[in-house]
Amino acid sequence: MSQHICHTTHQGRPVTVMLGWDRPLQEFFLTVELVGASAEGAKSEEDLIIYSTMYDHSGKWAYLDYLKEKLASLEIDVPKTMFTEVQTDQRIGGGNRVAIHTETGFTG
Questions:
Q1: Tens of pLDDT along 17-60?
Q2: Which residues fall within 8 angstroms of residue 105, CB to CB, at 6 or more apart?
Q3: Sheet harboring 27-34: ordered strands across?
Q4: Which pLDDT score is estimated for 38?
Q5: What angle, rounded to 10 degrees, do the helices at 64-73 and 81-92 form?
Q6: Residues 6 or more apart from 58 whose CB is under 8 A from it?
Q7: How does pLDDT run across 65-105, given as a tens digit for each residue?
C-alpha cells in the first residue's frame, strides 16, 4: 500500500494525516491521528484517532472525493499533492511507497 503523510493541525493540536492506496484491497484509506503532546494521556489507540476509514462503515471512503470532503469537514488542510499522488498510485497500481508531503512539495 502507498502511504502519503502530512503533519498538520486539527483544532490547534498536532496531527498526522495518512492517505493511501491499498493495492491488494483496491481501495483508498485515510487516518488522522493525534501526535506529540496532544497524544499524551490517551488510554488506547482509538483515543488517538480523529478519523479512520477503518471505523467508517458508510463505505463512501471508497471514493477519493469523499475523503477530501471528510478532511474539509474536519477543517484539516493538506497539500493537494497528497490527492494527485494517491490517484497516481491507484492508476498505476502502485504500492510500497511512502511520501512525506509539505506545503513546498513532497519526498518519496
A1: 999 999 999 999 999 999 876 667 666 677 789 999 999 988 88
A2: 81
A3: 49-52, 27-34, 13-22, 3-10, 98-102, 105-107
A4: 67
A5: 160
A6: none
A7: 999 999 999 999 999 999 999 999 999 988 889 999 998 88
C-alpha cell at 56: 467508517
- Alpha helix positions (H), 1-108: 45-48, 64-73, 81-92
- Cα distance from N-terminal residue to C-terminal residue, the chain: 14
Alpha-carbon gap, residue 51 to 18, rounded angstroms: 10
pTM: 0.89
User: DSSP per residue over 89-104, as a string?
Assistant: HHHHT--S-EEEEETT
3-class SS of residue 3? strand
